[in-house]
Amino acid sequence: MIIAVDAMGTDACPVADVHGAVLAARERGLHVVLTGDETAIKRELAKYNTTGLTIDIVHAPQAITMHDKPSVIGKGKPDSSMHIALKMVKDKQADAFVTMGNTGAAHAVAMLHTVGRIRGVKRPALSAVFPVFGHPVIFTDIGANADAKPEWMVQFALMGAIYAERALGTSSNPRIGLLSNGEEEGKGNTLIRETAEILARLPLNFVGNVEPKQVFHNQADVVVSDGFVGNILLKTYEAGTRYLSEHIRRTIRANIVWTLAGAALRPAFSRVRTKIDTTEVGGAPLLGVDGVVIIGHGSSNEIAVRNAVFQAERAVSGDIVNHIRQRLPEVMALLESVP
Amino acid sequence: MIIAVDAMGTDACPVADVHGAVLAARERGLHVVLTGDETAIKRELAKYNTTGLTIDIVHAPQAITMHDKPSVIGKGKPDSSMHIALKMVKDKQADAFVTMGNTGAAHAVAMLHTVGRIRGVKRPALSAVFPVFGHPVIFTDIGANADAKPEWMVQFALMGAIYAERALGTSSNPRIGLLSNGEEEGKGNTLIRETAEILARLPLNFVGNVEPKQVFHNQADVVVSDGFVGNILLKTYEAGTRYLSEHIRRTIRANIVWTLAGAALRPAFSRVRTKIDTTEVGGAPLLGVDGVVIIGHGSSNEIAVRNAVFQAERAVSGDIVNHIRQRLPEVMALLESVP
Predict the structure, then answer these.
(1) Among partner residues B189, B190, B265, which is closest to A262 by beta-carbon distance?
(2) With 90 as the cut, is the pLDDT of residue A148 above it?
(3) pLDDT in tens, A207-234
(4) Which of A11, A306, B45, B124 is positioned for an S-S bond with A23, CB 3.0–4.6 A?
(5) One fold for both A1-121+288-329 and A128-280?
(6) Adjacent-strand bridge partners of B3
(7) What does the pLDDT look like over A4-21, one tens digit per residue?
């Protein structure tokens, strides 16, 4: 299996990008191709013992930054590390693409300039996977489509379920929940109510509306929302848990007994952090494009990069793209035939 | 000042409702009127020393439960404790109404059967106030309108700003932020982009889009959203921080040193809890109805009930209703005159 990794993705690229790729190649014997500035990549690679590893470099004369507008990247930077890596996926020279770079850019380059979308997919969805008390839950869409239509939401649900089943090993019939402001039927906004109505008619394991508290109680394997609401959920979770952590930190400093007890608990707190941190999973699959594309945070460290490569490996092993290609038209046809 | 308190609101009514009202009457010398089952209220009141307090009882033969549908309550329970208390507000026999009961029902009874909306208000908005590192922030709408239009959002912003200024003492020119998935101009869904465009043209202290992390960094005094997204934000915050707390609790139990350190920190953790708990504030103002209406959680204890009564007191002292009545038409007129 060959994974193309954008070496110019993280905020401090190519340091963590190259390091993470080396870790992935070493731990899972993956063949990794790094795209980006050849000189810089070579300089980084020289820091590690790569004996016995298969790591190639493909030079890319351009790099996309976080400030580049997705709309102008296509024509403006046709030789970027993203373009070159994604072209390899398109041309079957690589099985997957991993980047910690500009999400909008990766989406645009994939959709408009390289692999394109899977036939029948209305809109690709950005997904996030993170474990709730150890059990992986996939959230889709978390940011690709700020406005959505019910039919798109149904596809997000289906693609998320396929990913859960094939790449996360959740179960053979993942529970699909629709993120809503109330679990009762009829709750939600117009989009949610219309989507719920369609999902209920399809041969999917639709468990109905789920509120955030149910999401954190493992009552769904796939949590479906439009990209705006999904993004707010994820960012609120991150900001809210950080806010609580900061409060604990400040409060503990109030007296010497608490400060000492807090010091004793430092390893416990850092263990908790790795368990609840959404970035630990390393990458978000962009579902619906015609190739495996995993996008991570710009602030990722080498562990997050490595984990994103592992995420790509799972998606490739689960043959996600072909399963979406096959099942999606079946379900959508059903949708049209059932009144 | 006379505050009408629904004694039949909490899940275990009238215990916490009556207790909270007694605390409020005692601490702030407020005149409280309890509406509900007279016998039950008298039995509860007898538990406390009410010497020197002004606490009246107005009997209500009916009570609304959490399971009653808002749509059928109006005609079905015209003599409920909510109807009777809100009629007192309408008839100027009380200055405010406080309930821990069914939110949808309180909304419906206020809007359709008693006080109605303030002239010019498109839709009332449910708001939540909670302190971010000690500084009160008002979120509006957090649940009254699952679907919203830009003009409604502008009114939510204005009503929230008036509340912040007059009842929370935030500043004379509260910073209004529009909850979005990115802070850059042009981010957000269609509703957010259209609302931002209008807000930018008005004489308001509009600071632009705010992401959840900025909300938790005190970068806005008023956080505006539609009721669906606002509700998801609030519930994700609550569920996410509880999830983190539960993780800490479980992790600390892993060994004896951590367990002991955790025991020493128990008072610190509970201090943090009271600071980050959204229910501590006690009640959410329903803005835009023609009277002060504060709605709290059904699970409230006596402290939350007391705090909700205090919230009502602040809203009355700030003369919120009249300020909305005066400023709203001015701003809306401006909206029509400016292209």
Answers:
(1) B265
(2) yes
(3) 999 999 999 999 999 999 999 999 999 9
(4) A306
(5) yes
(6) B32, B96
(7) 999 999 999 999 999 999
Give the minimum alpha-carbon distance from A185 to chain B in angstroms, rounded to a whole number: 13
Measure in Å the smallest separation between the Cα of B99 and chain A Cα atoms.
20
pLDDT score recorded for residue B279 = 65
Q: How confident is the model at residue B323 (pLDDT cuts 50, 70, 90)?
A: very high
B1-121+288-320 CATH, one of 1.10.275.10, 3.40.50.300, 3.40.50.720, 3.40.718.10: 3.40.718.10
Q: Which residues of A touch B226 (CB under 8 A)?
A: 189
Q: Do A254 and B268 touch (CB under 8 A)?
A: yes
Please state the φ and ψ torsions of residue B72, each to the nearest 5 degrees: -105, -5
Q: Please give the sequence-ordered ranges of beta strands (E in DSSP) within chain A, or none if there are none.
A: 2-6, 31-36, 55-59, 96-99, 125-132, 135-140, 176-179, 206-210, 222-224, 284-287, 292-295
Pairing of strands A284-287, A176-179: unpaired
Report how far residue B272's alpha carbon sits from residue B310's, in angstroms, rounded to the nearest whole number: 22
Do residue B241 and residue A245 have CB atoms under 8 angstroms apart?
Answer: no
Q: What is the DSSP string of A283-326?
A: -EEEETBSSEEEE--TT--HHHHHHHHHHHHHHHHTTHHHHHHH
Domain ranges of chain B: 1-121+288-320, 127-281
Any alpha helices (H) in A119-177, and if so which ranges? 150-166
Query: If pLDDT is split at 50, 70 and 90, which confidence band does B170 have?
Result: confident
Does residue B205 surpass a pLDDT of 80?
yes
* CB distance B288 to B117 below 8 Å: yes
The fold of the B127-281 domain, in CATH, is Isopropylmalate Dehydrogenase (3.40.718)
**Which region holds residue B120: left if phi is over 0, alpha if psi is between -120 and 50, else beta?**
left
Rounded-to-integer distance, Cα A142 and Cα A233, Å: 8
Which chain A residues contact residue B276 at CB under 8 A? 243-244, 247
- What is the average per-residue pLDDT within A21-42? 97
Span B120-169, pLDDT tens digits:
999 999 999 988 988 999 999 999 999 999 999 999 999 999 999 999 98
| Residue B70, token pair as written in the block | 């808002």
- Does B43 lie at the interface with A, CB-CB under 8 angstroms? no
Among 3.40.718.10, 3.40.50.1980, 1.20.1530.20, 1.10.10.10, what is the CATH number of A128-280? Answer: 3.40.718.10
pLDDT single digits (tens) B229-240: 999 999 999 999
Residue A221 Cα, gap to closest chain B Cα (Å): 17
Token digits for A18?
């190259």
Residue A74 has pLDDT above 70, yes or no: no
CB A116 within 8 A of CB A153: no
- On chain A, the residues whose CB falls within 8 A of the CB of B275 are 247, 251
In this prediction, residues A55-69 reach a mean pLDDT of 92
B326–A contact, CB cutoff 8 A: no
Contact B12, B40 (CB under 8 A): no
Q: Do A240 and B132 touch (CB under 8 A)?
A: no
Phi first, then psi, for residue B329 (nearest 5°) are -60, -35
- Residue B13 above 90 pLDDT? yes
A272 touches B at CB < 8 Å: yes
Q: Complex ipTM, two decimals?
A: 0.93
Which of A67, A181, A229, A271 would you mutate first to test chain B, the one with the most B CBs within 10 A?
A: A181
Give pLDDT, residue B67.
84
The 10s digit of each residue's pLDDT in A274-300 is 888 766 677 899 999 999 999 998 989
